[in-house]
Structures are given as C-alpha cells and as structure tokens.
Amino acid sequence: MKKIDWHSGFVSAMKLELVENENDLIFDEEHPLANRAQRIDLLVIKNITDAVIRNPIGRMFARYNICEYKSPDDSLTYGDFFKVLAYTGLYIYETQKDGFLAKEYTMTFIRESHPSKLLKQLINTGIAINRIRPGIYALSGNLPFRTQLIITKEIPDDQRSWLKCLTKHGTANDLRNIVTTTPLLPPHHKAHADNVMSVFTSANKALVAEEIKEKPIMCKAVDELFAEVFADQIKEKDDKIATMKSQLADKDSLLADKDAIIAKLQAQLEAYAKKELS
Known about the structure:
Blueprint lengths: L5 H12 L7 E9 L4 E9 L17 E6 L8 H18 L9 E7 L4 H9 L2 E7 L2 E6 L4 E6 L20 H10 L8 H14 L1 H10 L1 H62 L1
Parallel strand pairs: 3-4, 4-7
Antiparallel strand pairs: 1-2, 2-3, 5-6, 6-7
C-alpha cells in the first residue's frame, strides 16, 4: 500500500490557506537544525514584518513562525510540545545570536483532533488554553513565545479550509470544496491543490469512489481539476525524454568520432608496418 504523504499535503495546504499573503511570506519546509537530523516541519517567515495575515490561522504570526504538523496517524504529546519549544530555541541560537526579541517568534501546532491529554498536562504546568475562534486556541502563561494550537476538525465547513481536508474522515462536502475552490486559485497554485487532493483521495478512497459513481458531474469536475496538472506532468516527462534522447545522440556522435579516429590510427599503423617490412 502506498504511504500517504501527509507532510507534503500539509505544506501545500498551508500555502493555500495563506495565499492572500503569498508575497509577504517565505515558506521553508523541513528546515534543518544543528546536526541536520533535527528539522522544523515548516518555518514561515514574514519578509514584510508588519504585514497582516488575512487568514485567521496566521493572524498570530510574527516574523519567524515555527509550525509543527501531526498527521491523523500521529499523536501530539507533551514530549512533542517541548521538542518544538527546543527547536525554536535552537533556531534562535543558530540564527539570531544578537538582538533577540521573543515577540518575533511564534509556535503553531496543527492536528486534526483535540489532544485532550496534552492540554490537561499543559494546564497542570500553568499554561492557559483559550479558544480564539472555532479550531484556533491560544496558549499563554508559562511560555517564552506566543503559541497556538490549530484543531482542523473544528474549523467550520463554510471556511473551506485546505487543512481540514487532511483527514481520513472526509465528507462529500470536503471533496466538493476542493473541486469547486481549485479553479479559483492562481495558476501557479494548482499544484498545491493537487497535493491536497492526492492526500484526500488516498485517505478517503471509498468516499471518492462513491461520489464519482453516484454523481457523474463530480467525476467530470475531478477530471477537469486534474487535466491541467496531468498536462503539465506529461509535458515535463516529454521534455525529460527529449533531453535524454539529445544526450544519447551526443554520446553516439562522440562514439562515432572515436571509432573513426581509431580506424584512422589502425590504417596508419598498418601502412607503417608494410613500409617497414618492405
């Protein structure tokens, strides 16, 4: 069974969520730390410090924003929380040894379901949990940085959230939102929609098959959604094949030249040998 690439879907979903501010942000996926074995899932940097993020998910963002994503198959534990806190500290140590300002950093945790055990443990350590809006919780108190928790399952359906589509419990409404929202995106973001759709279909095969079977219109819409992506993929493969053929032709030409040189040298040697014998 093909493994679902939740992380790639997450990065694409975040870029789509924040598409209105794409010119204000830099996305650094799998940012390496220390010995390169430690990595930040997603680092979002504001290249315009005072830019206001329109999407509520990024409303809290400061200059440097460390994001940790947990797929539906993974839990979000007390250890995970402090791992990200440590990663944030490492990132500051490696990049901002002078002039550090705590207000320039934030931490964001994204998960589908409510991590009840973790929140109980955090509350017991003096951290307050406040729901800012459905699906978005602010953590405050005994923390060095502004921190939030995004529970994607709680985000209202009418927000058409891309993160909400990273689920094994997708609905017909989720599928419909992807199919109807994608055509409204700028052309260079269609690949991100494709990533999210790929994760959604892999995690919800029965639902997608049923929707396509029962609703031919949905099938047509899905075909149209991927038509452009498939065309780009085919062109990319054709270009690679053409490049390989060109490289092979160059090699064949070089081999032909080499054979000609060898034949010429052999003829010269034979002529020299005959001359010496005579």
